[in-house]
Amino acid sequence: MKNFKLIILFIKNSLLIDLEYRVHFLVNFILSLFWIVFSILTLKLFFYHRNSIGGWNYYEAMLILGIFSFFSAFIEGVLEPNVSKLVEDIRFGNFDFVLLKPVNSQILGTLRSFSIKKFPSMLAGIGICVYALLRLHYMPSIGDFLLFLTFFMSASLILYGMWVTLITTAFWFVQIDSIMEFIFALFETGRFPITVYPLPLRIALTFIVPIAFITTFPSAAIIGKINGWYGIASIGIATLVFTISTKFWKYALTKYSSASS
Amino acid sequence: MATIHHDETRSRSFSNFLTFYFDNRHNKTGTVFKKLTATTKKGSFLPSLIYNPDRYTNMKHVLKLYPVLLKTYWQIVIEYRGSMIMWMLSNIMPLIMLVIWTSLAKSNPIGHYNSAEFVRYYLALLLIRQLVTVWVVWDLDREIRLGELSHKLLKPLNPIHYHVAFNLADKIFRLLTLVPIIFAISLTSPKLHFSSSPITIFCFPVSLALAWSIRFISQYCIGLFSFWISHSIAINEAFYAGLLMLGGVIAPLDLFPPETTPLIKVLPFRYMLSLPVEILLGQIGKSELPEALAIQSLWLAVFLFLYCLLWNKGLRKYSAVGA
Questions:
Q1: Contact check, Cβ <8 Å, B3/A192
Q2: Can you list the residues of chain B whose pLDDT is less than 70?
Q3: With contact defined as beta carbons under 8 Å apart, do A15 and A22 qualify?
């Protein structure tokens, strides 16, 4: 409960900071709308030549795009802002102060600062999903919706776990921004249905870097295109990734030796 | 979403470091300056002409400085080879597009592209994209915003030449690393060969140089907007989206609906990336080539003009932080 209150406090804090730069807030919002239009145009181009990609029709694929938009804004708004801060803290030895505070160091280290200006893009992502669903004339049943929620929560947890595991490597490598860049680029594959990729890549994107569980499967759930067993698998993978990341974080802490010591 | 642009961004801390690094390193350049200062009298290089009479205004003298500048920046590039290679590998977007298109073209070709043709197209695109990568807007934006431009202005050389030299040093690095690999892949199968007609051999380097110049000068212009506004990076992002879409990254330009063709032909994006690719693949007919190259040159002229305008107006507006 204390941790939850803490996160709310951090969000409030970040909001106050972001509201100080209102024009920046607005420009960011316009830009994210611009990128959404860009993504939809890209999709339109594919469907100009074919009427399905990987077995997904136009509005179904748009659903995936909406989920993708949501999670890429989630990365930029929630996960990424903490990376540069953590790297800097480790480099200058300021991480000592994080460790000294009487709260969970992982929460303080990885969920400290948020970029609230990206939050409207998350809403825009959900907006695309709603639009796509309306155009599909598909009313999700309560079962579909619950399954979707399961996937959705697991996806957030998987992303967070993957992220923590990655930034934890900063305790050894310090300069990790070029590696982050590479992983970010890899996430781009989530823009399209997993079924469009050739088999080896599909396996890699499902089990090694579980991007399929983040964008394709939640979208499949809401239109009832997926077996419930996948939902259980997603809970399993989320638990696994999350446990590994916390264990890894704790292990990395034992390797931390402040700057210049 | 906004993540797309990341493969060409340099992180701020990285380029920041480079600038500091360079400023401690320029002594060698300094001595050349001294030698040449006495001899700069005649001739003029348009962009640097207006505001500082002590500047190197003769293009011949400026060119004499280039070997030193290139050497200095080459050392920086070499020092950061690990990051450089990581940046190059992050350029993954065309590969994703390639996978999608080949999967769509499996049953029957799209336009005149079958799977092998798509591989050939994106191989050429990857090659050209490595050679026209530009990141000057981040450097320039930072220099103007934080006032770092001031000490470059004190030197008797137009600041643009430092950026040009840095970018060219990076291009040499890419020419030596990634480009041979791509060429080697293209030689493995006759289906992947690039065109080697005399027209290609003559026009390709011209078009490539023009493409790089347009890309560089246009991004420099966008960076110069930082004299007035603090969001020039956002303008660049919109411009970059245009390049992805209409420059041939998302799809080969002849796969766009026919009604967009006039737009593609007129806008600058095709001439920053796609045109050299089309020439290298021998896709463009003899009759269309002169027109395309003419429009390309025209765009370069437009951006050069814009650069002169923005630079001269902007410098009057410029006041360093704390001034």
A1: no
A2: 1-57, 320-323
A3: no
Q: What is the pLDDT of residue B32?
A: 44
Residue B199: predicted pLDDT: 87
Closest listed residue to residue B249, CA positions, set A42, A225, A121: A42
Give the integer Cα–Cα distance in Å for A45 and B255. 8
- Cα–Cα distance, A145 to A157 (Å, whole number): 18
Q: What is the mean pLDDT of residues A25-47?
A: 90
Exposed, middle or buried, B306 (CB in 10 Å: 0-12/13-18/19+)?
middle
Which of A29, A33, A46, A121 should be substituted to probe chain B, the one whose Cβ sees the most B Cβ atoms within 10 Å?
A: A46
Q: CB distance from A51 to chain B under 8 Å?
A: no
Q: Three-state SS for A50?
A: coil
Q: What's the rounded Cα separation, in Å, for the pair A131 and A141?
A: 17
Could you write out the three-class secondary structure of B13-63? HHHHHHHHHHHCCCHHHHHHHHHHHCCCCCCCCHHHCCCCCCCCCCHHHHH
Q: Nearest CA to CA, how far is B238 from chain A (Å)?
A: 8
Residue A261 has pLDDT above 90, yes or no: no
Whole-number Å distance between alpha carbons of A165 and A248: 7
Is residue A49 within 8 angstroms of chain B, CB to CB? yes
**CA dist., res. A62 & res. A39, Å (int):** 9
Beta-carbon pairs below 8 A across chains A and B? 111
Q: Model confidence at A228, in pLDDT bands (50, 70, 90)?
A: confident
- The answer, yes or no, to whether residue A183 has pLDDT greater than 90, is no
Q: What's the confidence (pLDDT) of residue B106? A: 87
CB < 8 Å from B in window 177-206 of A: 177-179, 181-182, 184-189, 191-192, 196-198, 201
Q: What is the ipTM of this complex?
A: 0.85
CB contact under 8 A, B96 and A181: no
**How confident is the prediction for chain A on average, in pLDDT?**
89
Residues A81-138: tens digit of each pLDDT:
888 788 888 888 888 888 888 888 888 888 888 988 888 889 999 999 999 999 999 8
Give the residue extent of every domain in chain A.
Answer: 2-255
Q: Which residues contact B269 (CB under 8 A, 6 or more apart)?
A: B242, B243, B245, B246, B247
Contact across the interface for B3 and A188, Cβ inside 8 Å: yes
Distances A206 to A127, A197, A198, A222 between C-alpha atoms, Å: 26, 11, 12, 19
Domain ranges of chain B: 2-317
Q: Measuring CA to CA, which residue among A64, A70, A67 is closest to residue A46?
A: A64
CB contact under 8 A, A197 and B103: yes
Residues 26-85 on B with a CB inside 8 Å of A are 82-83
A190 CB-side CA count, 13 A: 29
More confident residue, A257 or B311: B311
How confident is the model at residue B56, as a pLDDT?
65
* CA pair distance A86, A256, nearest whole angstrom: 12
Distance of CA A104 to the CA centre of its chain: 22
Nearest to B89 among A24, A84, A182 (CB): A182
